[in-house]
Amino acid sequence: METLIIHPESKEQLTAVKAFLKALKISFEKKENVNDGYNEEFSAKIIKGREDIKNGKGITLEIDDLWK
Fold first, then answer.
1. Is the four-CA dihedral 52, 57, 60, 65 of positive or negative sign?
2. What are phi and psi of 18, to 5 degrees?
3. CA 44 distance to own-chain centroid
4. Which end of the chain, N or C, is surrounded by fewer C-beta atoms within 10 Å?
5. What distance separates the 2 farthest-apart alpha carbons in the chain?
6. Alpha-carbon 61 to chain mean position
7. Which Pfam families match (predicted)?
8. So where are the chain's domains?
9. CA 27 to CA 63: how far, in whole Å?
10. Torsion sign over Cα 32, 34, 36, 38
11. Taking a C-beta distance cutoff of 8 angstroms, is the pair 47, 34 a contact?
12. Which of 29, 32, 30 is nearest to 47 (CA)?
């Protein structure tokens, strides 16, 4: 069987597509658009970095300190 990827352009379209699939009893899954077209490995590193910052890992540098 095929898998379709649908790109609704508005919330209204998304709601209509979900209602249509439910009416036809077609299973679907929600997947957040994490990488927005970027390489998945790169996106995973960005996500990991954001999680590290939230967890207190990392350091803060002043711009002037970058040139020392």
1. negative
2. -60, -45
3. 10
4. N
5. 64
6. 28
7. DUF2683
8. 33-60
9. 50
10. negative
11. yes
12. 32
- Classify residue 55 by its DSSP letter: T
Taking the model in full, what pTM does it have?
0.47
Specify the length of the chain in residues: 68
Tokens of 19: 């209602």
What is the CA angle 43-48-50, rounded to 5? 95
| Residue 36 one-letter amino acid | D
What does the DSSP assignment read for 5-28? ----SSHHHHHHHHHHHHHTT---
Closest CA to 33 of 2, 4, 7: 7
